[in-house]
Write a structure and sequence with these properties.
Layout (H helix, E strand, L loop, with lengths): L11 H10 L1 E5 L4 E3 L7 E7 L1 E5 L5 E6 L18 E4 L3 E7 H13 L4 H5 L9 H6 L9 H10 L1 E5 L4 E3 L7 E7 L2 E5 L7 E6 L4 E2 L1 H6 L6 E4 L3 E7 H12 L2 E2 L1 H11 L1 E5 L3 H5 L7 E2 L17 E5 L4 H12 L4 E4 L8
Parallel strand pairs: 16-20, 17-18, 17-19, 19-20
Antiparallel strand pairs: 1-7, 2-6, 3-7, 4-5, 4-6, 8-15, 9-14, 10-13, 10-15, 11-12, 11-14
Helix pairs in contact: 2-5, 5-7
């Protein structure tokens, strides 16, 4: 990657992260690497062969041959693609995640983040937790400058088996990312044995609900193994991560989205609240059950989260976005919506 532009100017650790996630793409003569209108999820560099960049009408705009100076630049990378890339011969390209490349360029050009500042003692099993996190749908929607600030402000916490990270009923103060190890999530009910809700592994996040809603922690998270976490303070989480991900729609905008593109309303209040009145056709999944009942929601359509005030729907929108859904929240909430 040393000769590829702009990757050649990146720091060694940034190049390593990109190379770890890069892949080779082979195509036959007569194939199209991409067509007009395709999303530009990857930056493509031509290594071998010859391609033509063509307009949507078929006009040849430029020709590119592998192992030339011109081939050191990525192919046109606007998203969606503005032109076609036609293979004149068999070709081989290297594909690099465009979002990850943009983040690395931002960090390196501002000279604001060194890997050692975040985790200078990381092991080979956990040293690319940031890269894995950046590939989640939620973090790919956060502006690179925000991501830079998030990783700079995170604190490392080393843990031991049996250590309680957050306790049910406590006030929320941090958002957590597991960088190494496993946790168990449990919830207690009065007079009953604690219920096991989930087991979280490296790369999982938790703790956002209490930070967004200002409600007490609704579950206890305990380490099952020795490990490490990165944590982000409440105000930094809200400003840098939650706000960029919170997409608000008015009732008119939400209705139009569902009518034109398909989707559904998701009422995240309790069943008793839902039965007392909601938006017609809404699905009811209480917030505390959302992660366990994701299969009831359409993965390929928009989900507009609703509640009385917008507090619970904001949490639901964050959770769904992190899980890869196109999620919104209705604003204002049902108490004020017309």
């Amino acid at each position: 990657m040393a000769k590829l532009i702009p990757m050649g100017a990146l720091r060694p650790e940034s190049k390593r992260d990109l190379a770890r996630n890069a892949m080779l793409v082979d195509a036959k003569a007569g194939d199209f690497l991409f067509r007009t209108g395709d999303p530009a999820e990857h930056a493509l560099y031509l290594l071998e062969g010859q391609i033509e960049i063509r307009s949507p009408t078929g006009e040849v705009l430029s020709r590119l041959v592998g192992e030339t100076v011109q081939a050191q630049h990525r192919l046109p990378h606007q998203s969606p693609r503005k032109n076609d890339a036609y293979c004149v011969t068999d070709v081989r390209c290297v594909a690099v995640d465009n979002h990850l490349l943009d983040v690395m360029l931002t960090w390196d050009q501002t000279d604001a983040l060194e890997v050692g500042e975040v985790d200078s003692t990381s092991t080979s099993d956990s040293d690319d937790w940031m890269t894995r996190l950046l590939h989640t749908p939620a973090f790919q929607q956060v502006p690179p400058a925000n991501l830079q600030a998030i990783f700079m402000r995170m604190e490392k916490v080393n843990t031991v088996p049996g250590q309680t990270i957050v306790s049910q009923g406590q006030t929320g103060d941090f958002f957590y990312v597991i960088t190494e190890g496993r946790c168990i999530v449990t919830r207690e009910q009065p007079g009953q044995k604690a219920v096991r809700l989930a087991e979280l592994e490296t790369g999982s996040c938790f703790g956002e609900e209490a930070l967004i809603s200002d409600a007490p922690r609704n579950a206890t998270v305990t380490m099952l193994t020795r490990g490490s976490l990165m944590r982000l303070a409440k105000e930094d989480f809200r400003k840098l991560l939650n706000e960029p991900l919170t997409r608000r729609l008015s009732r008119a905008e939400a209705d139009a989205l569902i009518k034109n593109k398909g989707g559904c309303y998701l009422d995240v209040r309790l069943p008793s609240e839902f039965q007392n009145g909601s938006i017609g056709g809404a699905i009811n999944i209480p917030l505390y059950m959302l992660r366990m009942r994701l299969s009831q929601l359409p993965q390929d359509k928009s989900v507009i989260c609703i509640c009385d005030t917008g507090r619970r729907s904001s949490v639901a929108s964050f959770v769904l976005t992190h899980k890869g859904y196109e999620a919104y929240m209705l604003s204002p909430g049902l108490n004020d919506a017309s």
